[in-house]
């Protein structure tokens, strides 16, 4: 549909040029006939009248061609009339300059001197409006190449300003483009900086969601897989990757999913809080359980319990099973047996540890009395 409309505009431009040429020739003959046949006393003004009428025709047809050409450009680059303002301005200036040159030629005015003067003036004017012209041309490329489009979600990494900017494009104009940032602010960015001095990262739309990466660095004093597994229990729509490890720190690459750019800051804050909480949970377990903290999984915890060796390990393990406690013999010597008790925390870890130790000690005392 757009291609057909663009073709129609081209045909319209060609038709307007042909009509303009035909009208100019026809009007010349008509004026010559009228003055010769009916107004012979104005014959000395015939040349001037003819030139004036032809100049008017040239201007009218030129305006029509300019309008048709702008419509054609609008169809080709698929932009709005507001964003087309700068392009329309350039097209009109070029066509008007051509029209003025044609009109001057009609009146037999040499345009050589004018062109020479305008060339010098153009250099001076170009230096004066260099920044505006750069932005204007950049805007034309941005619009025509669809580098930026309304609704694009992206991050602009520019060496013009030091801060990376993430947001959603809400307007693309000739000189500036507007972005709604993740902070909820609207900023205007010069198109020249976007095209010539920036790297643009565009986020892909996946069923209404966008993926946004962040890196979180943690101390390497706890197992990283335990931190990630704990974090995954309390968050959805998030992927975790271990991006780097060294002797002192570990870095987690996190991919969060969002629908609106203004959600990003809240989601980053939430992810950081969850990771921080998971890290300290694991670290506290390491302090509490020592090396056996790595055996904690699915909310099961393991503690070591030491008992005198005067009661058979088999009886202790059997009695603990009757109490609902999984008990395993870890090591033994002539005076002490060491058991591992496995339990699921329900009320709170500190309460469960105390409860397990108390119940096992009561069991030991009971079995010891039976031996006596």
TrEMBL record:
Coiled-coil regions listed: none
Record-linked InterPro entries: LSM_dom_sf (IPR010920), MS_channel_1st (IPR049142), MscS_archaea/bacteria_type (IPR045275), MscS_channel_2nd (IPR006685), MscS_channel_TM-2 (IPR011014)
A GO molecular-function annotation: mechanosensitive monoatomic ion channel activity
Gene3D superfamilies linked: 1.10.287.1260
Annotated Mechanosensitive ion channel MscS domain residues: 132-199
Transmembrane segments: 12-35, 55-73, 85-107, 119-142
Keyword Protease (UniProt): no
Pfam families xrefs: MS_channel_1st, MS_channel_2nd
Ranges for domain Mechanosensitive ion channel transmembrane helices 2/3: 90-130
PANTHER family per the UniProt record, alphabetical: SMALL-CONDUCTANCE MECHANOSENSITIVE CHANNEL
Protein name as annotated: Mechanosensitive ion channel
Source organism: Picrophilus torridus (strain ATCC 700027 / DSM 9790 / JCM 10055 / NBRC 100828 / KAW 2/3)
Taxonomic classification: Archaea, Methanobacteriati, Thermoplasmatota, Thermoplasmata, Thermoplasmatales
């Amino acid at each position: 549909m757009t291609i057909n409309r663009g073709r129609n505009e081209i045909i319209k431009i060609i038709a307007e040029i042909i009509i303009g040429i035909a009208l100019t020739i026809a009007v010349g003959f008509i004026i010559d006939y009228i003055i010769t046949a009916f107004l012979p006393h104005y014959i000395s003004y015939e040349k001037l009248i003819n030139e004036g009428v032809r100049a008017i025709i040239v201007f009218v047809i030129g305006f029509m061609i300019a309008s048709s050409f702008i419509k054609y450009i609008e169809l080709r680059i698929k932009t709005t009339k507001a964003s087309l303002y700068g392009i329309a301005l350039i097209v009109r200036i070029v066509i008007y300059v051509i029209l003025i040159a044609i009109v001057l030629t009609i009146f037999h005015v040499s345009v050589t001197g004018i062109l020479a003067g305008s060339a010098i003036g153009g250099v001076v004017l170009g230096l004066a409006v260099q920044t505006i012209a750069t932005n204007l041309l950049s805007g034309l490329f941005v619009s025509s190449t669809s580098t930026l489009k309304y609704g694009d979600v992206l991050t602009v990494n520019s060496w013009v300003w030091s801060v990376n900017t993430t947001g959603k494009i809400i307007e693309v104009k000739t000189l500036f483009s507007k972005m709604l940032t993740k902070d909820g602010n609207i900023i205007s960015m010069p198109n020249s900086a976007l095209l010539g001095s920036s790297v643009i990262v565009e986020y892909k739309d996946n069923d209404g969601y966008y993926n946004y990466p962040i890196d979180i660095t943690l101390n390497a004093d706890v197992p990283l897989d335990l931190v990630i597994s704990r974090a995954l229990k309390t968050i959805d729509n998030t992927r975790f990757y271990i991006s780097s490890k060294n002797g002192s720190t570990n870095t987690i690459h996190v991919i969060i999913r969002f629908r609106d750019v203004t959600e990003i800051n809240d989601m980053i804050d939430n992810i950081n809080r969850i990771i921080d909480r998971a890290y300290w949970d694991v670290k506290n377990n390491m302090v509490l359980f020592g090396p056996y903290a790595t055996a904690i999984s699915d909310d099961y915890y393991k503690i070591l319990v030491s008992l005198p060796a005067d009661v058979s390990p088999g009886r202790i393990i059997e009695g603990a099973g009757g109490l609902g406690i999984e008990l395993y013999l870890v090591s033994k010597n002539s005076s002490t047996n060491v058991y591992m008790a496995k339990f699921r925390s329900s009320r709170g870890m500190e309460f469960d540890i105390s409860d397990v130790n108390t119940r096992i000690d009561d069991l030991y005392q009971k079995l010891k009395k039976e031996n006596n």
